[in-house]
């Protein structure tokens, strides 16, 4: 008998897909303490969760029988995906089920904030009849800035246009073609914060989007701007928003997510009459709960039946024999994609993947998908998985070219990746080195030998005496230890690249200081 544990509340309509199977036993045990979950998880083949259950490495150590974890929703922050991958456990999510729900909640929050509906409602309940205090603003002819134009952001854009709003949009993969099809104006974050009357964010919470709207951005905004966040807490720096509310720079805010959840009882945001707060309700509709439950239950059932499945966060759907052949290359491919994504500053228009040596004799489609996922998910997070990555690339107007070249003159296997934008082209290449695992061996035509892991500082510079020492001094003053160093050059005194493995994160200020060193051409802080 196949056993499935449901440890968070999940719609019964979704679980019905599993209950209908004669050979599957579904046990619902919600609110389990970690120790209790560890004690019983070894008895189950599948685990279904939402956001409450923390599936960490300790839990997975006891999951000796587990084959699949299903997350009824998009984000998998509560699941240790690398630990699951190491144990061969497939992690499934449901990225499509709550798109409309979240987009509608965003627009409901926008309307409530603009027309002061919650405040007027509370006034009525107090027995008042106060019309002057609750004069609002129209959305018609206002400028809406959308930061993050994935599925949810695109749905918000459609609704805004129906209300007569002009839409500015920023997304790292927003091509001119897609912008035209959605009738939005491609913009930078700085353009949005200076021009928009309303600003809404729809990005994942990653290193690049943490405090994306902070003191600098609020200072650039129009007086009377209105702010929304129904995506992830932490994209907007709450302390900066509070100061902007105090000064009157921000006329209103509507938040569904917070840096710490649940929001504290004495949180300063609760003191502002022009702020609308909801308790993370973006996906909380009957339809969305049913949709994500059905989606994840169907996918878990396919995994348990050894049938092709989609929406895998960590493993592509492959027959076991083919998966075993290419599995060593999957990590390398995704790391190459993530590295390239962090070395470009403009929307990607073309991705070229070249396979040389032994790998060219294998079924490389899964590896290409991991590369695309690495590139796209760096900005789009859990919305991108191994199955939909090619579709996301196509919808973003990105041309993907794959080729094989047979033997390589130096390496027994090599994956080359070229990522192009309208302004630049980046080239990286990696190999599997026996005994050492994945290695980055080429960077923009320069030979290096670096492990694709952890934090890195990547520079392009002129090969001049003292360069390494100057960078080392800056890092040392910041308390950042250099773990590894690789330098690649073609000629003495010419252009060179350097990859430094570092033990601690480098702040934007540290990166700025490095960028100001004479003869530094470019510098990037990379996390793999």
How would you sum up this structure in a few lines?
With 528 residues, the chain is α/β, with parallel strands linked by helices. It is built from 17 helices and 22 strands.
Which range best describes the helical content: under 10%, 10-25%, 25-40%, 40-55%, 55-70% or over 70%? 25-40%
How far apart the termini lie comes to: 40 Å
Mean pLDDT equals: 91
Number of strands: 22
Salient structural properties:
528 residues, alpha/beta, 6-stranded mixed β-sheet, 22 strands, 34% helix, 24% strand
Itemize the secondary structure elements and their pairings.
Layout: E1 2-6, H1 12-19, E2 24-28, H2 34-41, E3 46-49, H3 57-61, E4 68-71, H4 81-86, E5 90-92, H5 99-115, H6 117-125, E6 143-147, H7 151-162, E7 166-170, H8 176-182, E8 185-186, H9 189-195, E9 198-201, H10 215-220, E10 225-229, H11 238-247, E11 250-255, E12 275-277, H12 286-304, H13 320-341, E13 350-357, H14 365-380, H15 389-395, E14 399-404, E15 413-420, E16 425-433, E17 437-443, E18 446-450, E19 455-462, H16 467-477, E20 482-489, E21 495-502, H17 508-515, E22 520-527
Helix pairs in contact: 1-12, 5-7, 13-14, 14-15
What would you note in describing this structure?
The chain is an alpha/beta fold. The protein is 34% helix and 24% strand. The protein is built from 17 helices and 22 strands. The strands form four sheets. A seven-stranded parallel sheet has the order 8-7-6-9-10-11-12, with helices on both faces. Strands 14-13-15-16-17-18 form a six-stranded mixed sheet, covered by helices on one side. A five-stranded parallel sheet has the order 2-1-3-4-5. A hairpin with a 4-residue loop joins strand 15 and strand 16 (425-433). Helix 1 (12-19) runs parallel beside helix 12. The two termini are 40 Å apart.
């Amino acid at each position: 008998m196949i056993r499935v544990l449901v440890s968070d509340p999940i719609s019964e309509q979704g679980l019905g897909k599993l209950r209908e199977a004669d050979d599957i036993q579904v046990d619902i045990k919600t609110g389990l303490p970690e120790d209790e979950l560890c004690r019983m998880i070894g008895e189950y083949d599948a685990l279904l969760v939402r956001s409450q259950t923390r599936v960490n490495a300790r839990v997975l150590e006891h999951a000796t029988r587990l084959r699949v974890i299903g997350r009824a929703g998009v984000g998998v922050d509560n699941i240790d995906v690398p630990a699951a991958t190491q144990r061969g456990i497939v992690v499934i999510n449901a990225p499509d089920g709550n798109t409309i729900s979240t987009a509608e909640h965003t627009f409901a929050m926008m309307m409530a904030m603009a027309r002061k509906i919650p405040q007027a409602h509370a006034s009525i309940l107090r027995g008042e009849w106060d019309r002057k205090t609750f004069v609002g603003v129209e959305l018609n002819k206002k400028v809406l800035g959308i930061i993050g134009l994935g599925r949810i952001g695109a749905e918000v854009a459609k609704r805004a246009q129906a209300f007569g709003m002009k839409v500015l949009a920023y997304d790292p993969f927003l091509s001119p073609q897609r912008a035209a099809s959605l009738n939005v104006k491609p913009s930078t974050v700085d353009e949005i914060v200076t021009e928009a009357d309303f600003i809404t964010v729809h990005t994942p919470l990653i290193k690049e989007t943490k405090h994306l709207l902070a003191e600098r951005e609020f200072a650039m905004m129009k007086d009377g701007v209105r702010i929304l966040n129904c995506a992830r807490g932490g994209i907007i720096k709450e302390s900066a928003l509070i100061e902007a509310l105090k000064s009157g720079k921000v006329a209103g805010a509507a938040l569904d997510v917070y840096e710490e959840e649940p929001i504290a009882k004495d949180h300063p945001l609760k003191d502002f009459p022009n702020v609308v707060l909801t308790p993370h309700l973006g996906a909380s509709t009957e339809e969305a709960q049913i949709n994500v439950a059905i989606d994840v239950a169907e996918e878990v059932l396919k995994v348990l039946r050894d049938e092709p499945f989609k929406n895998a966060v960590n493993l592509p759907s492959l027959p076991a024999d083919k998966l075993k052949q290419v599995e060593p290359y999957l990590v390398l491919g995704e790391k190459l994609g993530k590295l390239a994504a962090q070395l470009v500053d403009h929307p990607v228009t073309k991705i070229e993947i070249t396979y040389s040596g032994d790998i060219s004799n294998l079924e490389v489609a899964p590896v290409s998908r991991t590369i695309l996922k690495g590139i796209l998910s760096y900005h789009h997070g859990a919305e991108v998985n191994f199955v939909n990555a090619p579709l996301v690339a196509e919808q973003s107007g990105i041309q993907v070219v794959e080729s094989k070249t047979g033997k390589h003159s130096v390496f027994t296997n090599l994956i080359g990746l070229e990522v192009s934008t309208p302004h630049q082209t980046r080239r990286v290449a990696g190999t599997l080195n026996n005994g050492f695992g994945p290695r980055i061996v080429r960077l923009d035509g320069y030979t290096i030998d670096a492990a694709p892991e952890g934090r890195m500082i990547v520079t392009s510079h002129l090969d001049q005496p003292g360069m390494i020492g100057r960078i080392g001094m800056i890092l040392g003053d910041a308390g950042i230890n250099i773990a590894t160093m690789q330098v690649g050059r073609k000629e003495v005194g010419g252009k060179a690249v350097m990859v430094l493995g570092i033990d601690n994160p480098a702040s934007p200020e540290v990166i700025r200081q490095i960028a100001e060193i004479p003869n530094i051409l470019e510098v990037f802080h990379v996390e793999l």
